Amino acid sequence: MQVVALKHIIFLFLALLSLTPLISSSYALVLGLLMALLGWVPPQINPSAWVKRLLAIAIVGLGFGVNLSVALEASINQLGLLIAVIVSALLLGWGLIRLTRMQPTTGALISAGTAICGGSAIAALAPAIRARSEYIGVALACVFVLNAIALWVFPAVGHFFQLSQQQFGVWAALAIHDTSSVVAAAELYGEESLAVATTLKLTRALAIVPLVFVAAWWYRRQHPEAEAASKLPAIPLFIVLYVLAIVIAEFIPQGEPLYTFAFQGARHLLALCLFLIGASLSVTRLQQAGLKPILVATVLWLMIASGTLWWVLHSA
Prior knowledge:
- With 316 residues, the chain is mostly helical.
- The chain is 81% helix and 0% strand.
- The chain has helices at 2-17, 25-38, 47-63, 68-77, 79-100, 104-128, 133-160, 165-175, 179-189, 191-205, 208-222, 237-251, 256-280, 283-289, 291-314.
- The longest helix is centred in the middle third of the chain and has 28 residues, at 133-160.
- The mean pLDDT is 83.
């Protein structure tokens, strides 16, 4: 009993330590993964749930360090590309579902998660198409595994191809599933990359609303006997607060010291999120995903990641 308590204390100590400058974001990720592999994550703690809560707070804090003109330029200039990537991912996903003859609902959830916003898109789409819990679980497991891989692979690939901060930010925002992994990977690459990736990724996340609207309409058309699908999801509050933070920092410059403090605090909070992301990975999740779904999810993700990387490298 004493050993169990000790390992849980070590986990909490490292989690708190990741909030300080003593542990960098990359080391925080490694330490979290080590805790998961050793089985030292307290059973009372759900790292994935905490990541979602803490990341929302961190994103709002990051808004105080983003220049308004830069944010607008990034969103407007890449809007056409964002739409093209989302539509391409959905069409490619549909093709892979038919080619592999995998369960269509699971495939639709994986495609939506790849196209827009990982777990958030899956959670929003599932009620609209009456997805069963086992299909949702498999799709979430696939996306989670690929998110964890992206944290390691993307910065390495970015350095290999000598991507600029701007280029990497755009690539990460277009090709990584969840907001948490986009922000974390960009933070590992650099501060300018973080600002670009966060803004562009949150713009991409807004596509959840029209996607669920279309999916609900299509489901009712295919299943007229079913009840009306769920209501459209509201725009996540943290996106609204992120935009508000950018506007406040732009038009009330007198609060610069406070904005700097909030931005730096958010950077440290991101390190904690990385620690928790590492702690969330387990062999169980890999087994839960299954061979065919993880294969389809991986192929789809590689197609989108390689295609957007090619565009980033040749668009200058």
